Amino acid sequence: MQATVSRYDPETASGAVLTDTGIELPFDVEALAGTPVRLLRPGQRVRLTTTGSGAGLAISEVHFITLP
Question: Which one, of 41, 47, 51, lies nearest residue 62 by Cα?
């Protein structure tokens, strides 16, 4: 799933993204653990790994989108 960062707090490493389907999902520092992501900026495009579905949809990892 792809999304756009809508807000990010570098002090807590938490924020939210707006998915391409129009759903805003929050994330916390755990979504960045184990990834090379250390800093995000509003408007940045990201790829998400998620768990659950519907109202239980949650972000487990945030990744940068890289072009081939």
Answer: 47
